[in-house]
Amino acid sequence: MRGIILALAGVLVVVLGVWIFLVVGSMPSADPPTPPLPAPAEGSQPDQAAPSADVASADALPNVHADPAWVERTSQSTGIPVRALQAYATAHLIVQIEQPDCGLSWNTLAGIGLIETAHGSHGGAVLGVDGRPEPPIRGPALDGNGVAAISDTDGGVWDGDTVWDRAVGPMQFIPDTWSRWGVDADGDGRADPNQIDDAALAAGRYLCASGEMRSVDGWRGAVFSYNHLDTYVDAVADAANRYATPTA
């Protein structure tokens, strides 16, 4: 998909297959300063839990999981819900093994999760223990009425709409984009954009497809590829930096 659809007083943006819920208090002044590269603070890297037996499959993911004690401790210090943080941290660990040169960090995924849907709570949704928001989170119909016009690509399987596409789930993937990036990270046999483990890992891989995220330019380029809007990149950077250096 090409272009940016921007509707102020909320700011709703559709770019490159991802629907963005971005709440803007006031527009930044011209030429805002570039936020620093988000990077976890010393000691804030997610610990890995002791792995269970590997799944015997050619398509099996690295069998790693964020340590529950780290998740609980970091959730308390950052305010990120435990279930959401578990997904972001485990996606970090998996991508770190798959693409060690990328430099993706959990707090970047958390920053995106906050801006997208407030960690799966947009519109009063509650993120369940299964990693699915209830009620499900759907963007408005992309029918060309103030938004992009994207005809149905999934037969309504994910978004419940057989006429137009709608963004889906805690990381707000449009069905056509999900068809290319979807992954079954929770091991239930289905790649589901409504499920936060699946969505967080897909988002991490999506970001790393742009290249390394260890430099300021590389990091900003990756997040910009997720949504072609500098104010969005700045908002994610701000959130990611706050998550990297929480107050105890």
| Average predicted confidence as pLDDT | 80
State the low-pLDDT regions, or none: 1-37, 39-43, 50-58
Structural class: mainly alpha
Question: Largest beta sheet: what is the strand line-up?
Answer: 1-2-3
Say how many strands there are: 5
Looking at the chains present, what oligomeric state does this protein adopt? Answer: single chain
Described by the principal axes of the CA atoms, the overall outline is globular
Q: What string gives the helices and strands in order?
A: EEEHHHEEHHHH
Q: Strand portion, in percent?
A: 5-15%
* Rg over CA atoms: 17 Å
What is the tally of helical segments?
Answer: 7
Fraction of residues in H or I helices: 25-40%
Task: Report how far the terminal alpha carbons are from each other.
Answer: 42 Å
The major beta sheet can be summarized as: 3 strands, antiparallel
Task: Please explain how this structure is put together.
This protein has about 250 residues and is mainly alpha-helical. It has a three-stranded antiparallel β-sheet. It has a two-stranded antiparallel sheet with strand order 4-5. β4 and β5 form a beta hairpin. α5 crosses α6. The N terminus is likely disordered.
Spell out the blueprint of helices and strands:
Layout: E1 5-7, E2 12-15, E3 18-21, H1 68-78, H2 82-98, H3 106-117, E4 126-127, E5 133-134, H4 175-181, H5 196-208, H6 216-226, H7 230-244
Antiparallel strand pairs: 1-2, 2-3, 4-5
